[in-house]
Amino acid sequence: xxxxxxxxxxxxxxVLVALLAAGAEMAVNSGVPRVAAVTLATAVVAPLRRVLPAxxxxxxxxxxxxxxxxxxxxxxxxxxxxxxxxxxxxAVGTFAAAYLTGLVLTLVTDLPRSPAAWLVxxxxxxxxxxxxxxxxxxxxxxxxxxxxxxxxxxxxxREREMTAEQARLxxxxxxxxxxxxxxxxxxxxxxxxxxxxxxxxxxxxxxREAVRVLRxxxxxxxxxxxxxxxxxxxxxxxxxxxxxxxxxxxxxAGVEDLVAVSRRAGTTVELRTSGKARPLAPAVDHAAYRxxxxxxxxxxxxxPGAAITVALRYEPDSLIVEVANGPATTKAAHGVVSxxxxxxxxxxxxxxxxxxxxxxxxxxxxxxxxxxxxxTPVESAAPVRAARGATATFVDASDDVRRQFxxxxxxxxxxxxxxxxLPKELVKAMRESRRRSGLAVGCGVAFGIGLLLVAAGGxxxxxxxxxxxxxxxDRGEFDAVRVGQSEAEVRDRLPDGKSFLAGDLTKGAxxxxxxxxxxxxxxxxxxxxDTEPVFRFCFRDxxxxxxxxxxxxx
Length: 554
Description:
Layout: H1 4-27, H2 32-48, H3 53-64, H4 73-84, H5 88-109, H6 115-198, H7 205-234, H8 242-247, H9 255-264, E1 269-274, H10 282-302, E2 308-314, E3 318-325, H11 341-352, E4 356-361, E5 367-374, H12 381-387, H13 424-471, E6 472-473, H14 475-480, H15 487-493, E7 517-523, E8 531-540, E9 543-553
Parallel strand pairs: 1-2, 6-7
Antiparallel strand pairs: 2-3, 3-5, 4-5, 7-8, 8-9
């Protein structure tokens, strides 16, 4: 199905050539029926050039020798045939047949005319048949070359994406395996040892509670580790137990569990909630949980024994999650690992949903961590790519500028894609294709120009010969004329001398006889560097009274 623009263009072109055909046919004083027939034939034949380019071209060239109105249609058909005929041999054969057929028919129908008319006809056939075909052929080859570049470029981008995806998956699997082998082993040891310590009869009730909290924390860490490993391996976490299913859906509702675990560890934690609770997007809900978790972790790590306050404030436009602790009451334990990556990752997480994080000391010597999270997450570059099904790899080809030009038929003025980054075999093949196309077009253009020059040279030589015959005679013709012959007899025998080649033949000439009229002609003999031989015939009273040969200034 053609697009509307092409349909409109085809209609406009058909109407235009039909009007030109009608005007050309009316110019030769044709009758109304003949003009109507030519116009209708043009309107019918013009669209057929897309289906039968060679047949339509040959038929119209033959018919144009009889119907002059079809002549404006010939260049259009030739251009279209050059674009649509497949194969160099078929194209050359079609245009050679059209040219020779038109030339022969012109010679046959206009046989009484002069050779100059035949040369003009040959020149016109070159201009209106061969040259449009060469232009159309070049346009089609250029479009095919650009389309090939586009297809190969799109294929290369797809292959590059596949390679990047495979590299990304391999790297994720390696990280997942390392995490499982190292962290998993340590967490299992923690869980086993804490479980064994929990049943020790020598522990007091408070110590047993602390050990139980440690065991539950190690088990929860194992669940989170399995979730992260599943995400790294195949991107889809699969809970293996009800506990893991519960851990996989953490949000604001899980903040109360975090507070309860901290309280069981012996820390004073207060949970405050203000405002009307509102539903949150999954990404925002998870970010709120992570803010509370990071705040509690930092408080336990850097301010052991300090009282902690966790606040959830539902504001009109955002949720504020705040964790604040007072100054430490006991010295922090040795060997606590703190690389500062928790707050950095938390800031990135909240930024992706359109929020922000503030962390800093308080006036009383404590520390405060607060996250401001909008109820509706703001799309950023990463979520947009995820929503489109793209992956954030080190080769983000989805944003590549070359992907903005889809492969397919292109028109004139389309993007020119270079060969940078293409395989060597592809570059070589494209160069060979471009060289062959350029050679074919170049040879065709050179052939057409050569024919034009030959035709123009022939017309020029013929024109000069015609002009020379009007103003030049040889010595034999001069000697054959006798003084005393009648003027009419002599003038019928000699040319009239009316030619631009004659110029001014009076410089240095002897004076003419009184009362006479003279005819001065050029001689075929070769003169000197600055002189030219001429013959002069003078008439008076209807007779030739003098003939003279002399040299004039060239």
